[in-house]
Design brief:
Helices cover 32% and strands 24% of the residues. It has 13 helices and 21 strands. Helix 12 links the parallel strand 15 and strand 16.
Length: 455
Amino acid sequence: MKIAFHTLGCKVNQYETEAIKEAFVSRGAEIVNEDEAADVYVVNTCTVTNIADRKSRQYIRRMKSLSPDALMIVTGCYAQVAADEIERMPEVDLIIGNSLKSEIADRAFELYTQRSATKKEGPEKHLLGYDELTEYEDMGSVTLAESSMCRAYIKIEEGCNRFCSYCLIPYARGRVRSRRPEDVVEEARTLISKGYKEIILTGINIALYGTENGFEFERKTDEEGLSGLETIIKRIDALEGDFRIRLSSLEPTVVNVDDVRKLLGYKKLCHHLHLSLQSGSDIILKAMNRRYNREEYLEIVKALRDFDPLYGITTDIIVGFPGEEDNDFEDSLDVVKKAEFVRVHAFRYSPRKGTKGAELKNTVPGDISSERADRLEAAAKETAIRFNEKNFDVVHTVLAEEENGGYITGYTGNYIRVYIEPTKGYNKISPRPGDFCKVKLTENYKDGCKAVLAE
């Protein structure tokens, strides 16, 4: 049996696709590229925006057209929240929601062997309702690797209970549930033993790791008095090996200055945080149901930069949220300038049916949203350049990942992408993918900086 996959959306989806692939391979299936003829296609969908929904439908049709008789399986967040829409697509044979992905391989083999003897009368659906999305689905040890087996992800948490007014993901992923610390640490140990040098902890909202009791915000405390993320960061930090730890993101709806300061003492934790801002306006933050204000956000930034003036911070910002006036947008630009982000992901607001935001009036015209997005990206580029310049002539540790246009590329601990001139320093011995190396940043270049190997 030949299986092809397409995954949309976040690293969690990609991680789970790797688990599904491994389940198929363990049963004797062959994985082929998504543009090849296959017996089974699996589309792991995203629903973070209307565009993501549309892309999901496009990939379903495109892949099924390659092999019209193939079995088409649709899973992921769009499948979870809009199964009725997908059910109307004649290309689809099986719909499986979140928290049932570990069953996909078994159901696919069963349906594939049965389908020749039965007449199709519409796709099968296997979905858990929102109130049933309460147990963490452990898919075993999974290797989602990037860049020549240098960096690997570990999923530690599922679900979110913050219910930001623009976001469907809590409905698609369910309530917060956390993976057992010992399982997370064991997966980290396995990846390190295989030679991975950067372990990235990911989840839907990893700042909520270790919480319990549904919507009550309570953290379990372990035998050492630690709680939340710190319970696993400390254990992974103590593992033997030459590696570093990176967090995929932290939500200021959950963490505060004290939470962040607790993490700063761990030596293997990269000096980089993805800290989602979404808006620099207190008015818009309140409308978004983000449970902090701009001043509290900037306090976290200050705490990080007090610890390390070159601490790297990346973020997400939405423009064009209903009610966003010019002065609200200017507040977002102001935070971008003050925070000097390494990178900003700018999004135009996309109303999602079923969220509070979709009910709001005073929508922002599309041309204004586009103009603001352009201005935001230009401002973000300027501040990134300024931040990069502060790193010039400073020795950084880079994880070399791949060769790109004659350069060795990788990331510093504070998440600056570097292009290393391989013939300078270290007696002209170039680093290989998977090597840690010391470099000095010299000038801005493309989406990061050029660098030379430090003597």
